[in-house]
Amino acid sequence: MATTTAITPVKYWSGGKSPFNVEYGKLMMWYFLMSDAFTFGAFLIAYGTTRFATNGWPNPNEVFSSYPFKPEGSSPAPLIFVSIMTFILIISSVTMVLAVHAGHNMDKKGVVRNLILTILGGLAFLSCQAWEWTHLFHEGAWWGRNPFPNADGTLSTTNFTNFFFTITGFHGFHVFSGVVINIVMLLMTLGNKFEQRGHYLMIEKAGLYWHFVDLVWVFVFTCFYLV
Amino acid sequence: MEQHSATTVLPHGHKPDAAVKEIWKVTGILTVLTLVELGLGFWMMGMQDETTKHFIKGAIIILMLAKAFYIVGYFMHLKHEIRNLIMTICIPLILFAWFIIAFLYEGNSYNNLKNKYNGYYKEHSSQHMEKKEEPKPAETKKPGAKD
Predict the structure, then answer these.
(1) How many percent of chain A have pLDDT more than 90?
(2) What is the pLDDT of residue B139?
(3) Which residue of B has its CA nearest to A93?
(4) Which of A98, A215, A226 comes nearest B71 by C-beta?
(5) Do B19 and A37 touch (CB under 8 A)?
(6) 3-state DSSP assignment of residue B34
(7) How far is it, in rounded angstroms, from Cα A64 to Cα A165?
(8) What pLDDT, on a 0 to 100 scale, did the predictor assign at position B132?
(9) How confident is the model at residue B17 (pLDDT cuts 50, 70, 90)?
(10) Which residues on chain A are in Cβ contact (under 8 Å) with B65?
């Protein structure tokens, strides 16, 4: 008898148990993120399809080759600024995971500290993006306007800027929502909401969303800046 | 209500110290993968050979998928969830395999057809485009730019 119970797996579907072994809100967050993944996937695949259906494409290393307070006349610096943005987002993801972990241990102080760091990381990322958009705008790039020729010097289309601003804009909007959600979480933590509930599961749901934003940036970064 | 749903969920086996260690380990892995990606990006910059370039791009995409695996698996904790949940999330995402292959193939085919049958498209896209300004000088507002 003892051996059979050890071998038979837990019957999650026979009733009386949570079949996914997570609470309702977390499961729904996963489903939402899956649908969001399809939205971003559709955007990025549309970008890829258009790129495959066009003869030339601007070289990202020529387009994205500046950073704030760059000395005038210095040589172009591709990939520098965007790698800083990438690291900001990765580090803010780490502080978020530490906040979730502190929540597991009912460590209010740890949650507050790491949430503040995560919010600062998100704001830093948004500031970087605001700077980059402003810079590109002053170079003449916007929806419907593309001053950058193709990599081989031929006439380019506005698809490049349209996709860039739409997709990084949609991602930036997600970062912004994530920062707002994290601020709400911080206020709820400071108001002892989770202490009263006896658990910090809400932080986990916010954490899932924040990691997803980081995950999307991994794809956006690769598709627009590297490849 | 919240209380109820939280207590019916079975505990996820995790020792506190091991969890923090794992977080830092994954952070290290993500940092290294990003640095390798950037290294490949810099290496690719001056390259003329298109075939090698394509291989490097393939390597970058594999590294990107590895990063995605670590973020979803460890930061989002999916690797430690039960099989039911993992499958519910992962199986629908298999659609992306079809989605990507079909659409990129379609885009490429469309381009070939345009080059073959649309003389205007071919001529237009091989015209030379003047760089409006060198990125080096100070950014002055362009006369054509709308505000």
Answers:
(1) 85
(2) 45
(3) B75
(4) A215
(5) no
(6) helix
(7) 13
(8) 66
(9) confident
(10) none
In a domain, A215, yes or no: yes
Question: What DSSP assignment string belongs to A59-111?
Answer: -HHHHS---TTPPTTPPP-TTHHHHHHHHHHHHHHHHHHHHHHHHHTT-HHHH
Tokens standing for residue B81: 């969830």
Clarify whether residues B23 and B38 are in a common domain: yes
Span A21-49, mean pLDDT?
95
Q: Is the pLDDT of residue B140 over 80?
A: no
User: Angle, to 10 degrees, between the axis of helix B95-117 and the axis of helix B83-93?
Assistant: 10
Query: Which of the pair, B6 or A91, is modelled with greater confidence?
Result: A91
Name the band, by pLDDT with cuts 50, 70 and 90, for residue B49: confident
| Alpha carbon of A14: minimum distance to chain B alpha carbons (Å) | 13
Q: Give the domain extent around A37.
A: 28-226
Q: Are residues B45 and B91 in the same domain?
A: no
Residues 8-37 of B with CB under 8 A from A: 8-10, 12, 14, 16, 19-20, 23, 27, 30-31, 34, 37
Residue from the list B42, B67, B115 with its beta carbon closest to the beta carbon of A218: B67
- Contact criterion met (CB < 8 Å) for A198 and B8: no
